[in-house]
UniProtKB/TrEMBL annotation:
NCBIfam families: PRK08159.1. NAD(+) binds at G13, S19, I20, Q40, D64, V65, I92, K162, I191, K192, T193, L194, A195. One of its GO terms (molecular function) is enoyl-[acyl-carrier-protein] reductase (NADH) activity. GO terms for biological process: fatty acid biosynthetic process. InterPro entries: Enoyl-ACP_Rdtase_NADH, NAD(P)-bd_dom_sf, SDR_fam. Coiled coil: none annotated. It is an enzyme of class 1 (oxidoreductase). This is Enoyl-[acyl-carrier-protein] reductase [NADH]. The keyword NAD applies. Its EC number is 1.3.1.9. Keywords: Fatty acid biosynthesis, Fatty acid metabolism, Lipid biosynthesis, Lipid metabolism, NAD, Oxidoreductase.
């Protein structure tokens, strides 16, 4: 469709071919964008390399967002290769699986801080670096979930982290708006990915959404990818600071 022809973007958070970031990367590549991907650790390198090849994407490096040197290295690689970027996608989150079950009140300080660091601060850290490369304006996008707005079973500390992430989207939107850079989030409905498999009773949550969402289905990574395309392209030039639900409409009933 050529919507992103001539555009270049960094997409962080592809773990495998079921990742939401992969759905977004494919949609962007189909729309004519040039893409850079990162992976986290050697275990994921094997999975991400063939995916990068499939899209003709550049691998910008091994990036653990708790290690600012690795984040800086990725942005240095991109600056050396492209000089500038037009969009950034952050699809990264983490919490100890043991605490995505049971009661929120039992969250430990260690896991609270780690969840906030990886799932919230990392977006601000990459936005800070991406801003410098968005010399012709740009679009930044992160992924959130309805558990930020309402209590969802077992989502616990991730719900608190996503609430903070959504607030970050608004603050960042103000900070960078003057430079023609937009910052938005997609609140995706539940999708069976590696990260989601850590959430207690996830199959039940999928079924619940399927029965109750207005569209009577769960969403696919392709559907999230297509909505991301709108937020990353000029079609949404008047949109920033927004949390856009791509959840088959669940948020109007849930
Ligand atoms: O139902 C779902 N799957 C939803 C996911 C509904 C709504 C939102 N989301 C969000 C997630 O919270 C996350 O922010 O979408 C984003 C992408 O998640 P995903 O596609 O569901 O999951 P996955 O394919 O596992 O990708 C997340 C990746 C990690 O995978 P693992 O499985 O290892 O947690 O985030 C990356 C990693 O590749 N990641 C990191 N990357 C760099 N540094 C780090 C880290 N420290 N930790 C996790």
């Amino acid at each position: 469709n050529g919507l992103l022809a001539g555009k270049r973007g960094l997409i962080m958070g592809v773990a495998n071919n079921r990742s939401i970031a992969w759905g977004i990367a494919k949609a962007c590549a189909d729309a004519g964008a040039e893409i850079a991907l990162t992976y986290q650790g050697d275990a994921f390198r094997k999975r991400v390399e063939p995916l990068a090849t499939e899209l003709g994407a550049y691998i910008a490096g091994d990036c653990d967002v708790t290690d600012m040197d690795s984040v800086d290295a990725v942005f240095a690689n991109i600056e050396a290769k492209w000089g500038k970027i037009d969009f950034l996608v952050h699809a990264i989150a983490f919490s100890d699986k043991d605490e995505l079950d049971g009661r929120y009140i039992d969250t430990t300080r260690d896991n609270f801080l780690r969840s906030m660091d990886i799932s919230v601060y990392s977006f601000t850290a990459v936005a800070q670096r991406a801003e410098k490369l968005m010399t012709d304006g740009g679009s930044m996008l992160t992924l959130t979930y309805y558990g930020a707005e309402k209590v969802m079973p077992h989502y616990n500390v991730m719900g608190v982290a996503k609430a903070a992430l959504e607030a970050s989207v608004r603050y960042l939107a103000v900070d960078v708006g003057g430079n023609g850079i937009r910052v938005n989030a997609i609140s995706a409905g539940p999708i069976k990915t590696l990260a989601a498999s850590g959430i207690g009773d996830f199959r039940y949550i999928l079924k619940w959404n399927e029965y109750n969402a207005p569209l009577k289905k769960t969403v696919s990574i392709e559907e999230v990818g297509n909505s991301a395309l709108y937020l990353l392209s000029h079609l949404s030039n008047g949109v920033t600071g927004e949390v856009h639900h791509v959840d088959a409409g669940y948020h109007v009933v849930g």
